[in-house]
Write a structure and sequence with these properties.
single chain, 90 residues, two-stranded antiparallel sheet, alpha+beta, TATA-Binding Protein, 34% helix
């Protein structure tokens, strides 16, 4: 696990982007978390005639916990729901 200069924690996966996403979604579901959306940036790039290596974002969270946090400090809403970026290095 590596923390880069932006403060992101980067953890390499031995699996493809698709398999990593599938496994991550399985874990989220097993823990009862809500999956709000998944974004396929590579597909979106293809849609506008550009290329991008496999890159996906999973947007997830727990609305009950998120709401309680925002009731204490509403500005935390800028960081909610949580996001995970999965990408393939070229």
């Amino acid at each position: 696990m590596v923390t880069d200069p932006t403060g992101l924690v980067i953890k390499p996966s031995p699996y493809s982007v698709e398999e990593t996403e599938r496994r991550f979604l399985q874990v989220l579901e097993s823990k009862g978390l809500t999956i709000f959306a998944t974004l396929d940036h590579a597909q979106n790039a293809t849609n506008v005639d550009l290329q991008l290596s496999p890159t996906r974002v999973v947007i997830f969270g727990n609305p009950k916990v998120g709401t309680l946090l925002m009731q204490c400090q509403q500005s935390i809403g800028i960081d909610l729901p949580l996001k995970l970026l999965i990408w393939q290095d070229e």
